[in-house]
From TrEMBL:
InterPro entries: FAD-bd_oxidored_4_C (IPR004113), FAD-bd_PCMH (IPR016166), FAD-bd_PCMH-like_sf (IPR036318), FAD-bd_PCMH_sub2 (IPR016169), FAD-linked_Oxase-like_C (IPR016164), FAD-oxidored/transferase_4 (IPR051264), Oxid_FAD_bind_N (IPR006094), Vanillyl_alc_oxidase_C-sub2 (IPR016171). This is FAD-binding oxidoreductase. It comes from Denitratimonas tolerans. The keyword Zinc-finger does not apply. Belongs to the FAD-binding oxidoreductase/transferase type 4 family.
Amino acid sequence: MSDPRLAELSRLLPALALKTESADLAFYGRDWTRRWTPAPLAIALPSSIEEVQGIVRWANAQRVALVPSGGRTGLSGGAVAANGELVVSLERMNRVLGFHSADRLLTVQAGMALEAVHQAALGHGLIYPVDFASRGSCSIGGNIATNAGGIRVVRYGNTRDWIAGLTLVTGSGDVLELNRGLVKNSSGYDLRQLVIGAEGTLGIVVEAQLRLTDPPPASQVMLLALPSFEALMQVFERLRARLTLSAFEFFTDRALHHVAAHGAQRPFAEDYPYYVVTEFDGDSPDAALEAFGTLLEAELVVDGVIAQSQAQAAALWHLREGITEALARHLPYKNDVSVRIGAMPRFLAETQVLLGREYPHFEVVWFGHIGDGNLHINVLKPEAMENADFVHECGRVTALLAQSLQNHGGSISAEHGIGLVKKPYLSSTRSAAEVALMRGIRRAFDPAGIMNPHKLFDADADAVVPAYGETA
């Protein structure tokens, strides 16, 4: 091993797996963003908390930055390693460590995939209810790092609502056991909640205690076609008043076009401008038909279908969950924003005008978790346009969008994190006083500034790596 720093790491931790091949550096050094050329020092794959501690202590001594890595399905550059950092992949720390039936707690290592957690919970007759399309590849540690939400937040909330405790290796190499699965704990600051959503800037989450719950009643899935954008929130409010909703997701005709081109079957003979897929308790099927009838009579929907089997329900959900994969080849510029549900109608109307005015020559694909105030805006890159020019133009419009979000009390990142991509717009969501406090918290957990530096907000002047440049 030619780099003396890596030779020292191997001497200190002889069982630690290290990857240095160029293909591995490229694979582990990026997430789903493609804006930075990956250039990590190496990839470390620890298999124990002790090895993670050893890596952190080595990094402090050698002044090497660390980038924690889960499934790297993020969309904000939070797992990018482009300046000689050591990527710490937890993919080998992927086991169930225990189940406590009285507490309904499942203890897992942070590298475990979300889908594997779902299966483990079902093995005990329970569910871990946080869910999203990348369930097969995203990890629990990554979900915790961004406080991921997903498709059933309407009923179950975000990741932070289901984390009963976690184990963290801080930037100093200390091991903290936070909250220890307690339901009630009024003994000072809840550091667990600080770590959730911190994007790996306070340390490396190595274990988590997950709350499980009873499976919901049998559900039904319904797809609705809407005649106008203005009908969207009215449909949500009327369905919420009549049905017990688990999910309420919206997408446009352009989103459906791309998913259909990617292999999905179109649900209706005709095309419509807007669609909603909603899931709700199926213990009263007549209520769904009655609700649909009232929407049809009020001219808020123009067509609809209720799944008659699990296969049909999966096909309807695929129209929504398949969007991200279908758009990937177009290298979309993504905005992931949120406002209060009550502010959504005005914000949607303003945003539609803003994007129509500022992106006249770009295709914009909308979808999102409207039921919890979260909207995803995907701008597709024209094939003939240089990526740097495209990113610059999208950044200009994102600054305008951020100002609108600030006016509506919203957030520039609902569930993907700030990372590198949204860092210039953090001030639209957080005040200068808040950012100053966050900096202080970060220094307390990570005095040397080695943990995922330059993510979330600009690093302090004595950071261990230089600032990131825009490349692709």
